Amino acid sequence: MLIDSHCHLVNEDYNIDAVINRSINSGVKYLIVGGSEREDNKLNMKLISEYKNIYASVGFHPSMALDVSDQDYIDLEEYIKNEKVVAIGEIGLDYHYGKDDVDAQKKMFIRQLDIAKKHNLPVVIHTRDAFLDTYNILKEYDLFGVIHCFSGSLEVAKKYLDLGYYLGIGGVITFKNSKLKDVIKEIGLDRVIFETDSPYLSPIRGEKNEPANVKIICNFVSELLDLSVDKVADITFNNTIKLFNIRI
Ligand code: NI
Question: What spacing in Å lies between the alpha carbon of 100 and ligand 1's midpoint?
C-alpha cells in the first residue's frame, strides 16, 4: 500500500473522482492534500469531509507572507480541530524570487511553528534557496515533520535528519541528472516518505502530476536500492502514517 504524503488537488482542473480512482488502482490508497493559501485550505477542508481516504495539512506558504491576516491564523486553529487535519503546512521560507519580504516570511513561518507546537502537530516545510535561515529557525524548535520536496545535498539532508525531520521525496528523484539518487543510497529509507506535489514535478515530463504517480517513484527507488517494491512501499507507508499519526 502507498500514500501520497503531499499533493495539491483543488486549484487545478482535476476530475477529482477520476484522479482518486486512478490513485487507488495504482495502490496509492491514501492522500494528504497540502494547503498553501487561504482558498486552497478552505477547499481542502471540503475534500477531507467528502473523501474517506484524504487527509490534509493546513498552512500558509511563504508567498502569502505580505497578505496574511489575524483572521487567517484564527481560521488555521479552527481547521486543526478536525481530526483529519494531520499537520501544519506547507510553511517555510522561499527566497527564490528575492528577499524583499524576508521579515514577513520569517514572522509568518514562526507564528505557524508556534501553532504546531501548541497543538503538538508535525510540520510540512517548504524551503527554497533558504536553507540556512530555515535550518536556524527549526533548530530552535523542538518540533517534528518533513522537509517537503527535498532536493538538497547529502550534507543538507544529514542536517535535517539530525534535527529529527523526515525527507519528502517526489518525482525529482527520477530525473536524469538528479543528485537525490546518491543521497537516498547513502541515507536509506528510515526517514523517507513519498509525495508527488501534484500538479507539479511529474515523473513523466510534460504531464500534469497526480497521486497515482507515487507508484512510479516507489518502483524507481526499489530498483535504485535493490529492494522489493513491497518492501519500499511498506517502509515509506509506515513512516508516513507514523509521522502524521494517521490511524488507518
Ligand atoms: Ni507543495
Answer: 22
